[in-house]
Structure formats: structure tokens, C-alpha cells
Amino acid sequence: MEQKANRHLETEPVGTLMRKYAVPCVISLLAMTMSIYAKKQQAIKNRKKLGTIDERFLREGEALLFGELGVSLGIAPEEVPNYIQARISEQNSNRP
Question: Which of helix, strand or coil describes residue 12?
Fold first, then answer.
């Protein structure tokens, strides 16, 4: 039964499958990671520590996200944070 339900996966163009399945997944992963990061910044501001579970999900979320972005950008996942920071700095320096 499941094979019939997934038959379209064999015939759909990869781009269509990416837009339908991968992109929403990456967006959700980004939203989760950003949310936990904001929670961490608030905890730091309040001189508190982020909970163990949040720390774990933040690390795992970043690892998955940086892996996906690294593939898309053609760079190693560990280079992604510096790449993002450089792009943000570049954008900020170009503002009037």
C-alpha cells in the first residue's frame, strides 16, 4: 500500500520534490534554531544558562542547518557561520 502512495517520488522532477519537501523542512529547522538562539541570548542577558535540552537541540539544529547550507553554498559546514557573519557585515556596511 505504501509503495503505491509513494510512487510519485520516482517520477517527480527533483526540483519539484525539493520545493515540496526539503524547503519547508529547512525553513522549519531555521525557525526552530533561531527561536532557541533568541532564548539563549535572553538567558545570557538574564545571567542564566540555557537548559540542557535547548542546548542539545540548538547544536543539532545548527549542525543540520549548516550542513544543508554548506551543500547549497559549496562550502564546508563548519565554514557556514563565518560565511553568514561576513554576509551580514557586508550588508550592514553597505547601508547608508
Answer: coil
